[in-house]
Model the fold of this input.
Amino acid sequence: MTSQSTAGKKSIWGKIKKFLLFLLIGQFVYIFFCKWINPPITITQLVNTMEGYGLKRDYVDDDEMGRNIKLAVMASEDQLFPDHNGFDITAIKKAMKYNKKHPNKTRGASTISQQTAKNVFLWQHGGFFRKGLEVYFTFMIETFWSKKRILETYLNVAEMGEGIFGVQAAARAYFHKDALQLTRKEAAMIAACLPNPKKYKVVPAGRYVSIRASRILRQMNNLDGDADVEALLK
Done:
């Protein structure tokens, strides 16, 4: 091996190390940036725009969302959100057991924290590599953000219809009002579409959304008054 080729390999490896260091520092900076500032754009929002769905969003602060939609998404997506560290181990075990028995009809167990990490820093779908990154970013936001900030960010970036992101845009599109004014039923209907917002329509509500919204309303009643939940609704 010539000294020239050795020097060339060292140069390439040096560039790779610099790039990896840049990525490492950059993701730390962005995590802390998003602790206080809403993400300028997410990969999911960008992909939706490129696919022709457009981009309807209107980021609002926590106190402009109202308690009903916060309670609805916790009742729908993650009832243990105030108490876990980002991962619901019991739900994960149940999902793994279910998916083993039903390989053609998989069930997820992502918490609101995991969904926030995916929506802000990553992309939809993907295999073990994306899941591994999701675990890392979930740990990071659970460590450096507050639960209140995680919930606020989720409600601002979650897809809630074709090209509709965040609860304010959803409230405007479906009910022609601000998120703060959503009734419990309206909030439950929006939450009901979250598993697949492109498939399930909030208005007019199909059979699936109507049935799921009724279940969410019952769970909202069950969670109402819980001290840990109430702390996130204020």
Observations:
- The chain has eleven helices and three strands.
- The CA atoms of residues 86 and 139 lie 7 Å apart.
- The chain has a mean pLDDT of 90.
- The two ends are 68 Å apart (CA to CA).
